[in-house]
Amino acid sequence: LQSGDYFFQSLVINPSVQVRVTATTRIFVRTTLVFRSSLLAPTGSALQPIVMGFGGTTTSLEATFTGTFVAPAATVNMGVGAGLTFTGSYYIGTIQLQPASKIACSETSPKYGN
């Protein structure tokens, strides 16, 4: 996805899928978000921090996410199995962090808005 804002009614990112984004990509999802593969830099070599907003009520982050995640009305289940690390800023109604998973707050996360 090139730089810019992307709006989806629902978005499914399945395991083993490569989604490449720029640092100025912002993704907004209204009702259904399935997040099972991390977002990569355009080269595909590293995780890319971005801004993602979710307007639904329940979702799971089942892959490492870096950046800013905004879901003020949602319950977000973070992590799976052996655990994941989530780095960035998280504005979430309710967080359910799975065992062995962790959240690392980062001052260098992309800012929400302009």
Can you tell me about this structure?
The model has no long low-confidence stretch (mean pLDDT 91). Helix content is 0%, strand content 56%. It has strands spanning 4-13, 19-20, 25-35, 39-40, 50-54, 58-61, 66-78, 85-97, 102-105. It is mainly β and 114 residues long. It has no helices and nine strands.
Write the topology of this structure.
Blueprint: E1 4-13, E2 19-20, E3 25-35, E4 39-40, E5 50-54, E6 58-61, E7 66-78, E8 85-97, E9 102-105
Parallel strand pairs: 1-3, 2-4, 3-5, 3-6, 5-7, 6-7, 7-8, 8-9
Defining traits:
mainly beta, single chain, globular, two-stranded parallel sheet
Quick recap of the structure?
The chain is an all-beta fold.
Give the SSE order as H and E letters. Answer: EEEEEEEEE
- Give the helix tally: 0
Instruction: Tell me the strand percentage band.
Output: over 45%
The largest sheet is:
7 strands, parallel
What separation lies between the terminal Cα atoms?
Answer: 19 Å
Roughly what percent helix?
Answer: under 10%
Rg, rounded, reads 13 Å
Quick check: average pLDDT? 91
Described by the principal axes of the CA atoms, the overall outline is globular
